[in-house]
# Entry
Amino acid sequence: MSFRLPAALTVLLGALVASPAALAQAAPTANPTLALLAKLDHVQHVGAVALSPDGTQLAWVREGKQPMIELGDADGKHTRGLDVGAQRLACSKRDLAWSPDSRTLALLVDCGKDLTHTKAVHLAVVLLDARGKASPRQLAALAGYAHGLAWSRDGKALDLLFVPGATRQAAATAAGAEQVGVIGEAKSQVQRVASIDVANGTLRELTPATLNAYEFNRSADGTRIAYTAAVPPGDDNWWVAKLYVQSAQPGVAPTVLVDPATVTGPLHGLQMALPRFSPDGARVAFIGGLMSDQGGTGGDLYAVAANGGAPVDLTPDITVTPQWYTWTGDDTLLVNQNARGKVQLATYTLRGDRAQASTPWFDLPATIGAGGAALSLSVSADGQHVAYQQSSFEHAPEVHAGRLGHVLPPAVTALNTDAKPMWGKAESIEWESDGHHVQGWLLYPANYDPAKRYPMIVQVHGGPAWGVLAGWPGARAMYAASGYFQFMPNPRGSYGQGEAFVQANRKDFGYGDLRDILAGVDAVEKRVPVDDHRLGLTGWSYGGFMSMFAPTQTQRFRAVVAGAGISNWASYYGENRIDEWMIPYFGASYYDDPKVYDRSSPLTFIKRAKTPTLIIVGDRDEECPAPQSFEYWHALKALGVPTELVVYPNEGHHFEDPAHTRDLRQRSLDWFAKYLPAK
# Structure
């Protein structure tokens, strides 16, 4: 939960972070660091990628000050920019969706960017003629937030998720509303499945106002929708969402297909994502498992009869993590999965109550995605052609497309051919810890000399149900570019080795996962010349928690940067606005079992902390509220440990102001340069 700060403290912090100019001036050694960060981020970014259903045309968003949509043949030839209207040149463009006949491209256009998240969102749904014979057509103007644009199979409707009157993105990572007045009495903003008539632009809200919908899918015959939903507030209750099905009409009572709170078996008490009807409409598939974040999808593949019944785990005991899929036949799924930090694309064939994977089409040390969603692909209607954005530690983002097969689809753009890594080589490191086989990624320092000894920064990912894949890091490789080894482990709790590995840190935050990380440090030190007396630690969210907890358990790290962390699970339980995520991990609420929370709280052991620590947080963070950072900072100050706290205005768990992102990166580099110099 976000808190309003006392007036005197607000004034003090306002002086520190009142403006980008003040931020830049306040941070020491600004110019060299900022110059490095600018160079690291100097690439052409790609947004949504969409392959036409007939597999012949490819469109993508080329990001920049004036984002543009480029359209060409599926092999990238004959590329041209699409006219979206002069008044929309500087507007953001996303959610590209092809009509079933491959003639029309629909998209969402946002011409306003309110970094304070206090003004109502206004979007437009725009239709573009792929043949260039007609001018852009604004189908609908939406007063609210929308995403998930998808055509009905008959081409008569565009479905989407819509939050009427929204002032922010529908996600807990966005900046929360200011908590003033009578708390808990404000009307929740509810996200609903809606449909727009393509003929006249009329919008109809299909799902009831009593349910906040998260993801949806329309059946091939167009008559039904399946969706995950929970009672409002939507940010908190995603972790207890149920799977519903209903007629694709407004005012219809939905039917509960799956309720994880009441089912028996491995799905009990866990989460669901990506509901998808089979082509024949007989089944609804989804991914189910222990997920710490909405949008951070991972788990086993499940299916349930569309007319009701018990859900079936199709992939029990697999040692990879499916994170995205699509049906390619009544009994086949194309699945993108994390396999020990690499991306695998495989076809699964359903036989009875099991799904058997074929030999992967490809296994990549890379990150792929389409439409801004990690690990998603755009697939032609016949399932034979794919398109996506791809990047790796060695290669900046490009659009790839081609026939699905064991030959990798080639890059069809040349947006970043001149971009070269400013860091050293990347290696996948694997090691043993407490009977677990663990994996992580190691970036070598720029201009690596094996005759020298180097400091190392350990960077712990968020989640914990997440995983580090090999993608173009840009400014996130700032430590390796500055002369450090940069180690990014995937300890127990991470995706990439099956559901048992994801669940291995339940009721054990900070213990087994920390042992995995320290064992990984040992493994790295056996391979490369790392100076064990010059180790640093950093992370955000769960990684921020680990950056606060680790110094209370070991003195091995000599400097820490903790971003949006958790210092006291007792107060956190009452402060955050997503407390439903904690029950699956801790087994009970804090009020029912305080001991399991207290044993993982950094403040329980705070008098052991000696490490200089920079603490960073957004003042409107719903997921890891700012008071958690204040508690840790206050404790270190009282104990005489060198520390600094920086609070950024109008920011949630995910920072949106580029000036703030640059500033926090600059401060992080300067903190390690001060206490853990690379030279």
